[in-house]
């Protein structure tokens, strides 16, 4: 099955660290970037809560600032990002 937005597009799967120079040039050049092995723990990271809803007729995801447990809504999907773990309510 091909891409849905461009059904006739040609694409290739490229594994990490096997990218060509042309690939990096298209992105503006190669530089250090975080990867799953280097992410570990982020000092100063604070958990973030997001509300996911489609009540207005379209789907959106908005952050909930200074959240409490009482902010978890039973009417929408809530996503709690704890850096290494994500919880869905």
Please, could you describe this protein's structure?
This protein has about 90 residues and is of the alpha+beta class. It has a domain at about 40-89: Severin (3-Layer(aba) Sandwich). Helices cover about 10% and strands about 20% of the residues. It has helices at about 20-25, 35-40; strands spanning about 50-55, 60-65, 75-80, 85-89. The chain has a four-stranded antiparallel beta sheet with strand order 2-1-3-4, with no helix packed on it. Strand 1 and strand 2 form a beta hairpin. The longest helix is centred in the N-terminal third of the chain and has 6 residues, at about 20-25. The model has no long low-confidence stretch (mean pLDDT about 85).
Percent helix among the residues? 10-25%
**What does the radius of gyration come to?**
19 Å
Could you tell me the number of beta strands? 4
Global mean pLDDT: 83
The main sheet comes to: 4 strands, antiparallel
The span between the termini is 33 Å
Biggest β-sheet: strands ordered side by side in the sheet:
2-1-3-4
Helix count?
A: 2
Q: Identify the CATH architecture of the domain at 40-88.
A: 3-Layer(aba) Sandwich
CATH class of the domain at 40-88: Alpha Beta
- In N-to-C order, the SSE pattern is HHEEEE
Structural class of the helices, strands and pairings? Answer: alpha+beta
The CATH topology of the domain at 40-88 comes to Severin
């Amino acid at each position: 099955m091909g891409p849905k937005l461009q059904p006739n597009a040609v694409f290739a799967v490229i594994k990490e660290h096997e990218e060509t120079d042309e690939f990096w040039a298209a992105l503006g050049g190669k530089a250090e970037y975080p990867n799953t092995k280097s992410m570990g723990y982020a000092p100063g990271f604070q958990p973030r809560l997001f509300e996911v809803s489609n009540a207005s007729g379209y789907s959106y995801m908005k952050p909930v600032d200074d959240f409490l447990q009482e902010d978890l809504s039973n009417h929408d999907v809530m996503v709690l990002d704890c850096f290494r773990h994500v919880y869905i309510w």
